[in-house]
TrEMBL record:
This is 2OG-Fe(II) oxygenase. One of its GO terms (molecular function) is L-ascorbic acid binding. It comes from the Bacteria. Residues 214-313 form the Fe2OG dioxygenase domain. The keyword Metal-binding applies. It comes from Sphingomonas lutea. Pfam families: 2OG-FeII_Oxy_3 (PF13640). Its cofactor is L-ascorbate. Keywords: Dioxygenase, Endoplasmic reticulum, Glycoprotein, Iron, Metal-binding, Oxidoreductase, Vitamin C.
Length: 328
C-alpha cells in the first residue's frame, strides 16, 4: 500500500514538491498523522519547503496528537532542544510521560533521565574532571562519563538505524563510502535528538568545556570483526568553523582490537564501558594539527560500539555547520 505521505515524498524527490505538499494538505484534512509528520520533517530540515522550526513543531504536535509515536519522539526532542520554541526541559518530560505507557522508548528515557543529576533545565550538575593523557597536543579522558545502562540504551536506539559509514570527499564535495572508514554508523540529528540524547550531549559538553550547540550530531559507530577507521584527521583545511575537539565514548568492552590509535604521538587508547576520550584536532590558531592523525584499529573479535561527537569552534549558523557536517 502506498500512503499519501509516501506519494508526496516521491513527488518531492521527483522535483514536484508543490504537488507533494498539496497531497499532504489533503491527507492532513482527512486526519492522516504521517502527512503531518512528513511536513514537519521537511520544515525542520528545510528540504522541499523553507525551513520553519515553529511550523515544524506545530505539525509534529498534530501528528503526535493523532497518535504517531515517531512524531511524539521527535517532538519531545524539539521541546528539549528549543527548536521552534524556547527549550523546555520539563515540557519535554511531560511529552515523554504522556507516551510512556504506549512507547517503551519514552518510558526508558524517563527512567534513565530520572537517575541523572540534572537541574530543572536539564543541565548536568556534576563535575567531570579530565585526566591528561598527552599534554600537547591535548588528549584526555574521564572514566565513567556514561553509565552502563546509558551505553546500552544508546546502542539500542542506534541499532535499527545503522548504515554504512561514509567520509566527506573533497573532490566530489559529498559524503561517499570509502575503504578508509569501514564500519556502520547511526546518527542522532536534530529530528532524533530526543531528551535522553540531549542529556548525553549536554554531559559531553560539560566534560569537554564546550557548549552543547557546538557539537555535530552524536554518532554511534559499530565495528564488526576486521572493520576499522584508517588513519585520518577530524579537522580538515577549509572549515571556517573548525572541528576543534573530538569526544569519543566507549559503549562496550567485550571485543578485541579496535584501539583508538594516534600513531604520530604514540598513543593507543582503549576504555571501559562509559569512559570518555577527548582530543584536540587543531592548534592554538585553530588550524588542523598535523600530529592528530588517528585511527580506529581493526576489531579482531567481537563488535565494538563507540559514540563519537565532533565539536566545532562555535555553534552553527542558521544553515548548520556547512558542507563537512555529518549528514543530518
Ligand atoms: O573508532 C575509533 O576508535 C575512532 C573514531 C574516530 O576517529 C572518529 O569518530 O572520528
Ligand atoms: Fe576521527
Amino acid at each position: 500500500m502506498t500512503t499519501s505521505a509516501q506519494q508526496a515524498m516521491a513527488l518531492a524527490q521527483a522535483g514536484q514538491a508543490g504537488e507533494g505538499l498539496a497531497l499532504l494538505r489533503a491527507a492532513q484534512a482527512r486526519g492522516e498523522a504521517d502527512a503531518f509528520l512528513l511536513e514537519g520533517l521537511w520544515l525542520i530540515e528545510g528540504r522541499f519547503a523553507p525551513r520553519d522550526p515553529a511550523a515544524a513543531r506545530a505539525a509534529l504536535g498534530k501528528a503526535a496528537e493523532l497518535g504517531h509515536v515517531g512524531a511524539a519522539r521527535t517532538l519531545a526532542g524539539l521541546v528539549a532542544c528549543g527548536v521552534g520554541g524556547d527549550p523546555d526541559w520539563q515540557g519535554a518530560q511531560d511529552v515523554l510521560r504522556r507516551w510512556a505507557e504506549r512507547d517503551a522508548v519514552a518510558a526508558q528515557q524517563l527512567a534513565l533521565i530520572a537517575r541523572m543529576d540534572l537541574d530543572a533545565d536539564g543541565i548536568p550538575r556534576g563535575d567531570y574532571p579530565l585526566q591528561v593523557v598527552h599534554d600537547d597536543p591535548r588528549v584526555a579522558r574521564h572514566e565513567g562519563l556514561l553509565s552502563a545502562d546509558e551505553c546500552d540504551f544508546l546502542i539500542t536506539l542506534a541499532e535499527p538505524r545503522m548504515r554504512r559509514a561514509t567520509i566527506f570527499h573533497d573532490e566530489l564535495q559529498r559524503f561517499v563510502e570509502d575503504p578508509v572508514r569501514r564500519s556502520d554508523k547511526s546518527g542522532f540529528p536534530l529530528v532524533s535528538e530526543w531528551p535522553f540524547v540531549r542529556a548525553i550531549n549536554r554531559r559531553i559538553a560539560a566534560a569537554t568545556g564546550t557548549s552543547v550547540e557546538q557539537g555535530e550530531p552524536l554518532q554511534v559507530l559499530r565495528y564488526a570483526e576486521t572493520q576499522e577507521y584508517r588513519p585520518h584527521f577530524d579537522a580538515v583545511a577549509g572549515m571556517d568553523n573548525p572541528r576543534i575537539l573530538t569526544a569519543l565514548v566507549w559503549l562496550n568492552e567485550d571485543y578485541a582490537g579496535g584501539e583508538t590509535s594516534f600513531p604520530d604521538i604514540g598513543i593507543e587508547a582503549r576504555g571501559k564501558t562509559g569512559d570518555l576520550l577527548v582530543f584536540a584536532n587543531t592548534d592554538a590558531e585553530q588550524r588542523p594539527d598535523p600530529r592528530m592523525r588517528h585511527a580506529g584499529r581493526p576489531v579482531t573479535a567481537g563488535v565494538k560500539f563507540l559514540a563519537s561527537r565532533w565539536i566545532r569552534a562555535r555553534p552553527p549558523g542558521p544553515e548548520g555547520f556547512g558542507r563537512h557536517e555529518v549528514e543530518r
